[in-house]
Give the backbone structure.
Amino acid sequence: MGNYDLKQEVTDKYSLRGRVFNKIREDILSGKYKENDELKEIAIGEELGVSRTPVREAFRQLELEGLIQIVPNKGAYVTGISMNDVKDIYMIRSKLEGLCAAWACEHITESALEEMEENIYLAKFHAERGHFEQMAELDSRFHEILYESCNSKMLEHLLKDFHQYVQRVRKKTLSTTERSLASNHEHQMIMEAIKAKNVKEAEKLATVHIHNAYDNMVKNGLKEAYSNE
Amino acid sequence: MGNYDLKQEVTDKYSLRGRVFNKIREDILSGKYKENDELKEIAIGEELGVSRTPVREAFRQLELEGLIQIVPNKGAYVTGISMNDVKDIYMIRSKLEGLCAAWACEHITESALEEMEENIYLAKFHAERGHFEQMAELDSRFHEILYESCNSKMLEHLLKDFHQYVQRVRKKTLSTTERSLASNHEHQMIMEAIKAKNVKEAEKLATVHIHNAYDNMVKNGLKEAYSNE
DNA sequence: TTGTGTACGATTGTATACAATGATGCAATC
DNA sequence: GATTGCATCATTGTATACAATCGTACACAA
């Protein structure tokens, strides 16, 4: 996570390096490349029809993102996320998400609040019907809106990084109707606290929300996902 | 600070890319390259006696670290740290440093505690005599020990990143005997809370410590440092 | 004078050639 | 049979050549 800016997000779409970067990242996060898999510059370059140069540059970025580890003169290896890492990230996120909610009280725009309300309303619909695919999507978007509303590029970028870093495991956290409904209700309370500009309450609710998400994840299924470690 | 790992720290010393990366980073943090300065691949390559390739790779990493911004087909520009960024970082650090101190209660080693005590003792000596150079050094080291004692590579790396990110402005924060002594006393209280495994107290003290550091910095001199913006 | 178009130069983007390094297998020696 | 040394090969590290792109300056016309 080095990295704490977001300027290259546009450029990445149009340069070869950016496309390679996104492709590999997706393949790692989706599970196509597994922990300790070796990524070879030539192989990936050929697969995507580009030379080694953009692949190398993408590798360097992926290393800073923490998705791969480069051993000099040897190769690039996919790094896994350990259970401890996941726990750490959730604890860190919990604190930062609270900060983010607090700041959002002051800086959120009307349209952002409206999108949140719409999001929550729609999520209720899907949660009741067990549409977990859509729930995951809506949940992601809710937090994204929150991040974009804190008026701090630093914090926004940091949280987005973490958010996508645990994407692999996060899918599981909303996989019951019960948790989906509870989570959505928590979203609503956070939104209302922000709307009321109740800083302390918003901070606390957001903090607890992430804690709950983590607890729920631990309760059902995180262990299996990592049982082969 | 994308990047949230620390694997390449060793490799960086021995590869050209790593050396270029460190050199440019230092030059930005030390102020040799100023905000909006344009960094040209060829010029820097020639200055360091390497070709464009390692320079380009270093640029990509620096971009993820947020120190430069790369505009496609145009150039790389030094990104400044605005007063708002500094404030954000301190607020974020405040939270995370609290978390770090809390975790350290459980995981700190005897030898780390001893080094802390020594650090505080020595710092008192230098603070009383106005040796600000040594104070800055000792202060940095104190926090580093703390970071290394939380038993989370994630959090450790994150805090180290932030710490060096504000290095430019941080020097000013210890530039009075008064603040030096107060800061050192805060270090001592944090250390004692950790030693006593008083989690809540350690967290609170560490959080407040960073807040104080920020307040002090704002009080004397941050504005001037950025008056040309 | 002002606006527009074009051509040129500077710089980055990509591909490829060559150098350096580390892994592997085999043979020679103890 | 085990171990060490060497040769070979695969892979990354670096340099450089060429392509694409952007900004600018200048000429020309309204």
